[in-house]
């Protein structure tokens, strides 16, 4: 077996391990008890997909896949920022409603 072929098999094995880890993170994103668990799982899925695309670009020797990986990284980052922003907005709104509810109950 040539060294290049051994590297290809190794990279395919790493891609299979990444696929299993992505599935496990997807399970965590679905059943995560808190919203923070879900956001972190989604971020990890994005990171592992980027690693998979980078490995695939090495195996297939295609340079354009690196560009796709960079674009995916920017989109993934923006998605996590938006999710975090939405979560903090919902958290602050719930906290202010709770405070106003406590003030109303205290005055009555």
Number of helices: 3
Strand content: under 5%
Q: Helix- and strand-based class?
A: mainly alpha
| Overall outline | elongated
Radius of gyration using CA atoms only:
21 Å
Helix content: over 70%
What is the H-and-E element order? HHH
Number of domains: 1
The count of β-strands is 0
Largest sheet: none
Mean pLDDT: 89
Which spans of ≥5 residues are poorly predicted at pLDDT below 50? none
Termini Cα gap: 82 Å
Kindly report the oligomeric state of this protein: single chain
Topology:
Blueprint: H1 3-31, H2 35-60, H3 64-107
Summarize the structure.
With 108 residues, the protein is mostly helical.
Structural description of this entry:
The chain is built from 3 helices and no strands. By secondary structure, the protein is mainly α. The protein has one domain (11-103).
Which key features would you list for this structure?
108 residues, mainly alpha, 3 helices, 92% helix
